[in-house]
Write a structure and sequence with these properties.
Layout (H helix, E strand, L loop, with lengths): L49 H8 L2 H7 L14 E9 L9 E10 L2 E11 L13 H4 L3 H5 L4 H12 L3 E4 L2 H16 L7 E3 H11 L11 H7 L10 H17 L6 H4 L2
Parallel strand pairs: 1-4, 4-5
Antiparallel strand pairs: 1-2, 2-3
């Protein structure tokens, strides 16, 4: 993982780790529990879509995010603005596990903007339990977390970067649900954003080819190998986001897709 300076700034360039590619690989394969709000919905909000309710309830940076028009589903892929995002966590459930790090990189049409690469280790609440043995997978230690970036700052940065873009992930349920849980905590509303999921795209492609994939067949490193992409060390958030972005471009180059609606779930 990227180490942060004493001044507390996040890094802006991907830096692979040598973390073990073991237990939490299932994060890309297992659907985690859906995040539900425990708040009572005011009567005037019944009948609105989930996104509309979230937009009304949102505060701070999330409210600003919802004021930006979303990308039209008819937008052409050759100029589609995306943000490839990856998170590292202590486990699979946003209800019981914690967000440890996040990374992203912008994709503009068929080009990856390497200069936009972002990585931050997320500061943990006081008296948060040790990450324990999970550090052997994601490479984030308790000492690194102690000097991390406050969650509010990380989410503010993410929501600015996501404005007017589609979120791109490999097995998007992880990012969507952990980030939505975090926005509920800080901004009182869930995160609704257009999503492209390279995991879902590959599964759909394989099924159309008459091949019904097993979980291992859809892991990010294995899918990348099938497209002739280089091997990266796994479980560094920005490196995984970059790996996802490269895979998306390879998938598009080998398809007849032309608009956003063709690549959405």
């Amino acid at each position: 993982m990227c180490h942060r300076s004493a001044a507390g700034s996040h890094t802006r360039h991907p830096s692979p780790t040598t973390a073990s590619n073991t237990a939490l690989d299932v994060c890309q394969l297992v659907r985690v529990d859906t995040v539900f709000s425990t708040k009572v919905t005011p009567p005037f909000m019944f009948g609105l879509s989930a996104k509309a309710r979230a937009a009304r309830a949102a505060t701070g940076a999330l409210a600003e995010f919802y004021r930006t028009a979303p990308v039209d589903k008819r937008a052409p892929l050759h100029s589609l603005p995306l943000l490839a995002v990856d998170v590292e966590t202590t486990g699979l459930s946003p209800k019981t596990d914690r967000l440890l790090s996040i990374g992203w990189v912008a994709v503009n049409g068929a080009s990856i903007d390497a200069g936009s690469a972002y990585h931050a280790i997320v500061q943990q609440p006081d008296h948060a339990p040790s990450v324990g043995q999970s550090a052997t997978v994601h490479g984030v230690t308790d000492d690194m977390l102690a000097g991390g970036v406050p969650l509010g700052q990380v989410l503010d940065d993410l929501l600015v970067a996501l404005r007017g873009r589609v979120m791109l992930c490999h097995y998007a349920a992880m990012e969507q649900q952990f980030l939505s849980s975090a926005t509920q905590q800080l901004y009182h509303a869930s995160l609704h954003v257009p999503i492209v999921d390279t995991f879902a795209l590959e599964r759909r492609h394989m099924e159309r080819m008459g091949t019904y994939p097993r979980g291992e067949d859809l892991r990010l490193p294995r899918v990348r190998r099938r497209y002739g992409l280089p091997a990266y060390h796994n479980h560094h958030a920005t490196t995984d986001a970059l790996a996802c972005a490269e895979l998306y471009l390879a998938q598009c180059a080998n398809s007849t897709w032309s608009t956003l609606q063709h690549v959405q779930p």
